[in-house]
């Protein structure tokens, strides 16, 4: 470890200068020789470094998602050229070049952070060895050696002997308890960070070897931190614990606000977004607008959660636009999630009546028909009487172009009258009248 730290000694001076500047600030508040002044100086160094690494963190997220997208193609290449490793490597590099993806981009924050980590280790090791490092002079060296964090000096390790710990004015028990607790917290934060990435922010529709590798790292990294942590000074443990907590919080923010498409985190995000839009009637901020715009642009390539989001907006009376805005729709749910017209509702068939109801309805209609026939027959009889009276008054031998007065050709008088009288009645055999109708 000392050899590696010496290799990064070129950055020791800038790191020591930053620590000294923060120490002046916190020393004026808590006292220059206190553990709070030196401990908070290390924490502030971590925060400053991580703020500067935010652009690299964004590139890491994009690279990781691009690698997840390429996993099916990479698996096909591995199966196709399993016997030819050289051709397999060539095809992999060609795939990376075509997609514009770099596998090392996902490791950029760790690689960029490593020089500062080893430089800090070199500074703290110099403090433990009572050696001047960077801009830290003898006065600052004595102040740092006297600083304790919960009873443990900044420069001691878990594996240090009791004599060395006693020379720094501390007890071995206090050092072991503090360092063990910090190692446990450091490993636990690393495990939780990797676990929330695997359980919430991974596309569950794609099963690839990349997911298996990430799952393995979820258990390997905490073990590595526990093994190497016993050889880290307390100040380095403070640095590493701080950067793990920062990474965990940063990742929680990204998972909540910009989740991976197809993941459980995206389902929860779209559910919150839909609830906000239906309540406020619009999107809020550029992040939400950008998310809606990306979903609309996908069209038929939307995943299950995105289709559910679009359908939910349509049912609530809203329509997502191509620019990411949301407007009130005049027609509710008239289109599907793919933009096609919704199918017309099916026509409902009338309920089938029972046999007794059908017979009862037939009987009632028959009775009405009988009443109508009776009334028609009665009116027909009255007309017949009138017609007979008129025929009796008319002379029988009065010809009208070969027609009789009844309107028949050479027939018996009165036949036409009878025929007219029966015109309103039903043809065929008549039903007997009901006694009450006589």
From TrEMBL:
Question: Where is this chain's protein located in or outside the cell?
Answer: Cell membrane; Membrane
Instruction: Note the CDD domains from the entry.
Output: 5TM_YidC_Alb3 (cd20070)
**Gly residues bias spans:** 404-414
- Coarse class of the primary localization is membrane
Q: What does the protein in this record do?
A: Required for the insertion and/or proper folding and/or complex formation of integral membrane proteins into the membrane. Involved in integration of membrane proteins that insert both dependently and independently of the Sec translocase complex, as well as at least some lipoproteins. Aids folding of multispanning membrane proteins.
Q: Which family does it belong to?
A: Belongs to the OXA1/ALB3/YidC family. Type 1 subfamily.
Record-given protein name: Membrane protein insertase YidC
Gene that specifies this protein:
yidC
